[in-house]
Amino acid sequence: MKLKIKLGILIVLLVSSFNGVIGQDKMPFLLQQYQADKGSLERFYVIDASPERRNRFIEFNKEYLNKLTTYSFNTLSQSDKVDYLLFKSQLNAYLTDLNEEEANYQKTKNWLDFAAIIYAQEKARRRGASIDGEKTALSWNRLNKELSVKMMELEKAPLLAKPMAMHINKTIKGYKKALKSINDFYNGYDPMYSWWTAQSLKKLDSAFDQYQQLAIKRTDAATSQKLDKSGIVGNPIGADAIENSLHNAFIPYNAQELIKIAEKEFAWCDAEMLKASRELGFGDNWKAALEKVKNTYVPVGKQPEMIMDLYNQSIDFIKKNDMITIPPLAEETWRMIMMTPKQQLVSPFFLGGETLMISYPTDDMDDDAKLMSMRGNNPHFSRSTVHHELIAGHHLEGFMNDRYKSYRNFETPFWTEGWSLYWEFELWDKGFPRNAEDRIGMLFWRMHRCARIIFSLNYHLEKWSPQECIDFLVDRVGHERANAEGEVRRSFTGGYGPLYQLAYMIGALQIRALKEEVVGSGKMTLKQFNDAVMKENNMPFEMLRALLLKTPLTENYKSQWRFYKY
Fold this sequence. Notes:
single chain; mainly alpha; 25 helices; globular
């Protein structure tokens, strides 16, 4: 009898404990469900910019917004309130993008809807419908002829607004993807399909390529940038879009205020650079000092060895100063690969995470390109970027994101890049640079982060051309010209969002300000603070601040944390 009573009490305690956890953590289940549902839809509706995909995702995101209304915000825990606000913001941002895509579709239907039969063919393919090879070939031949007519019309039409041109470009990519989906399924399996469509598919795919190129050529953006010798044609989004993007990222500053922040940080870098230059005997000619540092590049074939040495120095330094918990498995599982020459055109410096991608010359690059790459990846420059890319930067980020509160999928570059740059701040402050050459190398990157804010915002505000951005990096930061071109090309044509480049410095300044509030007040040690950041996962830092400091939140909360004083 006593045993039964004890078991009964234990069961009651376990159930009570379980219910307490469930009651406290309501949002994680909803977020996990959303991600699973979203993944299923993304794998099924794969054709970008198709009306079918767009309408389904509008319906889907509205459905989850409605689910949020079933929660009583004021009864939620602080953690749930943060997740609620971020999820609501995320859903609204997705819907804004989808509605904008629909508006651009309505403006461009004349240039696109003639090929809508491809959508129907791809939709039938998904469930294995039999296909009539002859009818399919004839339909594609008709489309090929219509494309020729559309191209002649487009040549004579007024220039396309940038959003319209971008939508046409995206839709054509979707058509090509649908054609490939159809062909991959039936070709070689259905002999009549293969016999009939071989030539018509090839011609149609080529015609879409030509149509895509013509749409790009016939845009305002292409015309305004055609005299730019850089050859880089991006998509500056304008002041209104920047403001909306900053609002969605929980950044309560406008573009001009962010530029002022960059200029103040730049002034600090300038002063420190002059100190190091004078120490090396170059007086105020800091570019001459920078040249000396660039020429410290290691012999051919020794770059991986140099990176390994810098990694060992930084990891030992972090451990010695007891700055953060480093899981042994995170140390064990990172690795190196060499970056291809093609990738180096947009990534002139090494990239990291679990895999460190080394950007360094290969034997088939010309001599000038080899030298620029070697100089730009010298040991003193790399002193900042090794721990930025590995530990405690990107590699540790990814490792911890997979293991702690992984339901939080609020990925923001302010957290991703801000955290890694924050470690450059921390190691600088604790004396990681050993001499003036090290300080110049680390300052080069800090100046670069300031420059990213200035050139990316001026570009998206349509004040600077890509070539002006390149010249700014060369003149103001001291970049090798080829590396500056790669940075600008990566910024505007590499698939990054418009706020990505400014997020490095702004994110780092946010976390530094939060550290001062939390560690400076004695609420946590530095190690406790850094561990806490890693265990809350990727989110806007203002919401992380709400978690760590338990700041009041309302259902209609708007960003208000002014984390930087001019």
